[in-house]
Amino acid sequence: MVSTFLQSWSQGVDVWGESGMRKLFSTANVVTYGGNVKEEGYLKMLSELIGKYTYTSVSSSRQKDSGSTSRQDATDDILSVADLSALPKGRAVMFGSGAKAVLLRTIPIDHRPYAQASRASEEAHNRPTVDTVDHEPTAPAAEPVVPEPAGNRWAALVKE
After folding, report:
1. Where are the domains positioned within the chain?
2. What does the pLDDT look like over 73-122, one tens digit per residue?
3. pTM reported for the whole predicted model
4. Where are the alpha helices (DSSP H) in the chain?
5. Radius of gyration of the chain measured on its C-alpha atoms
């Protein structure tokens, strides 16, 4: 199983290209959007995936001895591009395979029962390391340095 965490759609496009990013997104079993993105195309796609709701608008009018009421069905986005763009902290939208999108309430790790253990683990594993060897970085003599291809900085690291 592969887990990929991106801050924006564009970040994925920079790595895999537009076609690769669409493939990754469309085949993911779970996609979570946590807000703070201003990419209209991506937000529009999410809004369309979330869907629409139908409501009935009722209006009434009255004259001397008569009155009328009209009803009209209308549809609107459940979450518009503007709603998604302004998603407040503490909320996320999750898309799961075979299910409709769900609005989530997120719980920060420091509010969970294992917060203290998590902090201790982070402190133990994020200590700065000290490199005591003074050396100059050099390219290996046997392998030529390949220039980074434009648009995808990871392509040079992948051996085909």
Report:
1. 9-127
2. 999 999 999 999 999 999 999 999 999 999 999 999 899 999 999 999 98
3. 0.68
4. 9-27, 40-50, 81-85, 115-125
5. 25
